């Protein structure tokens, strides 16, 4: 059976994803394992999508 993303994952806010990113870095002590790095990269993509792809405020 294929694994599809949970619908709630697609609707998480940037703040929620950011919190998970911060927790990941805290747990890792600032040094990500290869598995953590993969997770981090996925979180960054999710965070960018939640922020509209830009971390800069609109002018």
Order of helices and strands: HHH
Strand tally is 0
Helical stretch tally:
3
Which stretches of 5+ consecutive residues score pLDDT under 50? 1-5
Helices and strands in order:
Layout: H1 7-10, H2 14-28, H3 34-50
Helix pairs in contact: 2-3
What this model shows, in words?
It is a single chain. It is built from three helices and no strands. It has 59 residues and is an all-alpha fold. It has a domain of 40 residues. Helix 2 runs antiparallel to helix 3. The protein starts with 6 loop residues before the first helix and ends in a 9-residue tail after the last helix.
Summarize it.
This protein is mainly α.
Keywords:
single chain; 3 helices; 61% helix; disordered N terminus
């Amino acid at each position: 059976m294929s694994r599809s993303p949970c619908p709630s994952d697609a609707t998480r806010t940037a703040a929620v994803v950011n919190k998970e990113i911060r927790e990941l870095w805290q747990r890792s002590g600032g040094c990500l394992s290869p598995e953590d790095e993969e997770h981090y990269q996925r979180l960054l993509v999710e965070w960018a999508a939640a922020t509209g792809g830009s971390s800069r405020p609109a002018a």
